[in-house]
Amino acid sequence: MPKKVGIVGGGITGLATALELVKKGYAVSVFEGEKIGGLASSFKTKKGEFLEETYHHMFKTDLELISLLEELGLKYEFRKATMGFYWNNKVFDFGTESSLLFFPGLNFIDKIRFGLCILYLRFENDWRKLEEIKAADWLRKVCGENVFNTIWLPLLRTKFGSKAEKVSMSWIWGRINLRAKSRGINKELLGYIDGSMQKLFEKLVSVLKEKGVEITKSKIMSIKRRNGKFFLDAFGGFDSIVFTVPFPIFLNITKSFRLDSYAKKILGVDYLGVQCMTFESEKPLSSIYWLNLGTNELPFGGIIEHTNFIPKERYGTHLFYLFNYCSWDDKIFNDSEQTVEKKYLDGLKKVFPEADLSSIKKINFFRNRFATPIYAVNHSKKIPPMETPVKGVFVSNTAYIYPFDRSLNYSIELAKKTAEKVGSFLEHC
Ligand SMILES: Cc1cc2nc3c(=O)[nH]c(=O)nc-3n(C[C@H](O)[C@H](O)[C@H](O)COP(=O)(O)OP(=O)(O)OC[C@H]3O[C@@H](n4cnc5c(N)ncnc54)[C@H](O)[C@@H]3O)c2cc1C
Fold it and tell me: Where is the signal peptide (predicted)?
């Protein structure tokens, strides 16, 4: 009889871990409480085409993701993506090295300092020496106050909202280092799965089921151990369990176990939530795919015009996202959907005062309380090992993806690592 593994969470980490474990010959069950795909799940647009609930693309360096897509026989393409920067009430092209030369927000010396900083981050290989330093402190010192306030602080706020100043410099290193390697010369190439991430999850589920993996819709509330076997609520008889949910959910489910110092360590990792609204419109807003905002006076952190990346003909309409990362106790995170919509549309009018926004319609709203861990200074020392003090119980979630920005690619890499650890435990138990 093969040994049994229970996986809590049917996002990419859970499903990719299931794939690795079933390939090793284990009997695997996955439990998903809401929607397969988790943070990368999709919804159906009017024309029947699926679209991610939060913008998703991939990079040329996403080799694990690309290899999984090829294994599953899924199509994807890389396309040129335009980037912009909203600063001083104007939208500037910001997608190429040369666009920096014409950006009026930085003077000549600022541009040199910014350019040298990017070069350093591109060629520095040791991120550990940057992890004890706050990004805000390092960038202010190296690039100067104007570059920090104009470029870096808005970038940090886009991803970490009011917690921006807590983030470690190693996270910025990860983002710039990888991004620089992924870019073509003077252009940004981003990848997209034909049919959206939905295709990836549909295919993964079907392959897993063919291989005998059981996938159950159930929100797991508790874990118990009896006679050497684990039970997730009423589902039982597991030799090992993998939690792919965020730390706070893991702690809640495992509260009957005495995790003591392990739990204390986990409590040191803070999270941010995200809300992301998708709109359709008869007319485009601009020609830019990704618009970063050089101001914190707007209720959202960025504007992503999806149909400037993937042609609008697929959807029969222009589509764009407005989003913001925020703490679950921030006011806007607790606002009603209608209030958020109104705030977002008012903000949009400030960015595009000339645009005719009359045909804009909200088509989806996504909110998640644990969208990202805050990768604060010394993050690698703050996270506990994936092996919990309860032998056979593992945690594997986005907090372990570091210093590179969390993504499907790194979740797949993490899943492989997790399956190795589980396999090695099961061989010896
Ligand atoms: C706004 C945004 C944009 C992003 N853009 C990109 C991008 O462009 N490219 C990219 O590669 N990545 C992107 N990411 C990151 C990517 O989506 C995540 O890193 C990845 O989806 C995380 O997968 P996961 O399986 O680790 O976690 P999750 O997707 O969070 O999966 C965890 C699953 O556990 C389930 N769960 C929770 N509690 C329980 C319970 N009690 N019982 C059972 N199930 C439970 C949840 O419902 C969820 O499905 C983005 C993320 C966000 C938030």
Answer: none
